[in-house]
Design goal:
It is a single chain. By secondary structure, the protein is an alpha+beta fold. The chain has 2 domains: 38 residues; 153 residues, Umud Fragment, subunit A (Ribbon), CATH 2.10.109. The longest helix has 36 residues.
């Protein structure tokens, strides 16, 4: 009888320990999956003013930028029309986080201006995509003082610029970035609390309000 009680207690202790271990493993899996899907990012420097300021904190959508080659099944995934990205991937006006093309301790944050196959030109303080001048008054700090292009953006590459055009290391300096460098898209600014906003990425338009196709 004593031995039976002892075995019952051991089974209960083992069962409780197993539940604790299973819960811890499940929690770790959920944490790792969440970190792969969404990432916190701290803005550094002035290159994205006035949209984003140094030390602001944003959440980055990474899951939509996973690269998956589904071959003939690509068309079955809604919104999948931009390379090998799991979902829609970047569009003109997306504010993205990416790894710079040279050695750096930090990722960069810039706005997508040109897509693969686009003809991009920066001239006399104006930006043209496929011959159409962009209306950038809503998000840039000042017009660019440099010239770039005209040039066609290669396949799987994106032309990115900082909103603070003349204080930004971006594609006008190091050229278009490859899609493999992209980490994700800024979807939400959560700090400082008085500037909480999801209006970071914008659709780029011409001066008549037409969204570029």
């Amino acid at each position: 009888m004593v031995e039976a009680d002892k075995l019952d207690r051991m089974r209960l202790q083992y069962g409780a320990l197993r539940e604790i271990i299973e819960t811890a493993i499940l929690g770790l899996i959920v944490f790792l999956l969440a970190r792969e899907a969404v990432q916190n990012f701290q803005v550094e420097g002035r290159s994205m003013q006035p949209t984003l300021a140094s030390s602001e904190l944003v959440l980055v959508n990474k899951i939509g930028y996973w690269e998956v080659d589904l071959g003939p099944f690509d068309a079955l995934l809604p919104g999948r029309s931009n390379g090998d990205f799991l979902l829609s991937g970047p569009h003109r006006g997306s504010v993205i986080i990416f790894r710079p093309p040279y050695q750096s301790a930090h990722d960069f944050v810039k706005r997508v201006i040109g897509m693969p196959g686009d003809m991009v030109e920066v001239i006399r303080g104006r930006v043209f995509v496929n011959g159409v001048e962009l209306n950038e008054n809503e998000y840039i700090f000042e017009p660019p003082s440099y010239q770039w292009g005209p040039a066609v953006i290669p396949p799987e590459h994106y032309f990115v610029l900082g909103d603070n055009r003349n204080s930004s290391q971006d594609s006008h300096a190091f050229g278009p970035i490859h899609e493999d460098q992209i980490v994700g898209e800024v979807m939400f600014r959560w700090f400082p609390f008085d500037k909480i906003s999801s209006d970071i990425s914008l659709q780029t338009t011409d001066y008549e309000g037409n969204i570029l196709p």
